[in-house]
């Protein structure tokens, strides 16, 4: 990846700084409606998206100037992944999601992540999943 030195920022931080002003972070966790310790989860790893995109375009994002010169283009090219394919989660659910799918989930795991989040939401609200009514007590049964 980047050839950053300690005096330089990781390229993805420049992207997040610019993009976060337009994030639509909700007031409650998508899964449990908790209002505390809320975080925005991107189903697509922004770091992986950025590195893949930069490599495909042969952009050098190893310096602050390099990433700053292309970050608006990256954001424009990835609006869907940055702004639409996200969920507001409480820290507990965000951490649990990453325990299952890893720190930087691959793009191929996006449908599984979405399904996991939706199943957890259904479990919290006592909705029927696979012909069984589920509730909080069986919270992680499908994934643990």
Give structural notes.
This protein has one domain. It is 47% helix and 10% strand. The strands form 2 sheets. Strands 1-2 form a two-stranded antiparallel sheet. The chain has a two-stranded antiparallel sheet with strand order 3-4. Helix 1 crosses helix 3. The longest helix has 16 residues.
Short structural description:
This protein is mainly α and 144 residues long. The protein has helices at residues 11-19, 46-57, 64-77, 79-84, 91-101, 110-125; strands at 38-42, 86-90, 128-129, 132-133. The protein starts with 10 loop residues before the first helix and ends in an 11-residue tail after the last strand.
